[in-house]
Amino acid sequence: MLFLMFRLGQDRYVLDVEQVEEVLPFLEPTILPGAPHGVVGAINYRGTPVPLLDLSLLALGRPSAAVISTRVILVRYPIEGGETRRLGLVAERVIQTLSRDAADFVPSGVDAGMPAYLGPVASDAEGLIQLVRAEALLPPELREILFRQLAVAS
Amino acid sequence: MSDASGTTRSEPVEAETPQAHPGRRDRAAYEEVARALLERPLPPDYRAEWARHFAAEKPIDTGVEVELASAVIFRIGEEWLALSTAVFREAAEPRPVHSLPHRRNGIVRGIVNVRGELLVCISFATLLGIDKNADAERGDRSLHFERMVVIGRANGRIAFSVHEVHGIHRYESRALTPVPGTVGHARAFTKAMLSWQGRTVGLLDETRLLDAVDRNIA
After folding, report:
1. Cβ contacts of B168 within 8 Å, gap of 6 or more
2. Which spans does this entry mark as compositional bias, Polar residues (chain B) (predicted)?
C-alpha cells in the first residue's frame, strides 16, 4: 500500500493515497468568517469551494509554516450515502510517499484520549509513523457546519 | 543563500577524506540541498498566484492530439535562434579551435576536439550572415555562457560556438508563425518564427542548414 507522508511538528503521519485526490501548493484560502478552530478558510478548486483545514493548527495549536514544503492535501472526505466531498488539509513537509504493508500498522496501545482521527502506527528505524484516517478528521458537528456553510455560499 | 555557500565550502574538506561510501555521501549531500530548497520561505504572491491557478477551470482534454515539438534555443551575437532537437547533439564547454592550413576562407574555422572526437568547427555567424561585430570569434561580453555546440545527422557532425545556450524549449507546432520578409540573410535558413519569452525567435530549417554546411565543407 502506498501512503502520503506529512509532519506535525517533528512527528510523521501518513494518509492512505486512496483517499488523496491531489496535492496542491500552499495556496491562499478565502477566509470563512466565524469558521471553527482549525479551519483556515475555503479554496476555490476548479470552481468548487473546498474547505481548508490546517492540521498543524488543529493538532499543535500553531499554523503550518509558510515554506515550499507545506502543501495542501486534497482528500476525498466520505459523507452520507457513499458520496465524497473534497477537503483540503494544510500539512507540513509533504515531500514523501511511503510504501508499506497494511499489516505493518498495529494499534498504538493508547486509544483512550487520543484524537479520533489517529489510527494505528507502523515503525521504522526513525521511530513511529501514525496513520491518519481522513474520514475521522472532522468531528460530526464541525463537518455539519463546514459543508452546510459552503453549500449556502455556492 | 547561506545554505548554498555552506555546501560549496564543505566540498573540498570531504574530498580529502577517503571515499568509503561515495554513494551514501552523495545521497546525504543531495538530501541536504533538497531540504534547503523545500524549506525555503514562500516567494511573495506565491499563495495568491496558486489560488488563482486552481480557481480556473481545469483545461479539458479535447482529445485532439496537440503536436508538440522541441527546439534548442541559443544566441549568436544579438540573435536568438532555435534549432530542432532532432539534429542537436551536444552543448559542450568552449574549447580551442585548431585552424587548418589552406582553409582560411569560408565558414570553416578549423578542427575541435569534443570528447576525443575531431569535428569540423564552422562559423555559424558567417553561414547565417549574422552581425560580425558580435561574432564568437571576436569575443563577447558574456563569455561565461559561451558553448561549443555539436549538431549533425547520421552521416556527420559539426561543431560551432554560440554565445549562450538557453536550453530546450517545447512548443506546439501550430503556434509557429510564418517568417516575415525582414529577417535578412538568415531568412534562407529560417523555416518559421517561434514565440519565446516575449521574443520572436527564428526556427532554423535543419535540413537546409546542414545541406549548406555540407556544400561549404566539401
Report:
1. B70, B71, B72, B73, B85
2. 1-10
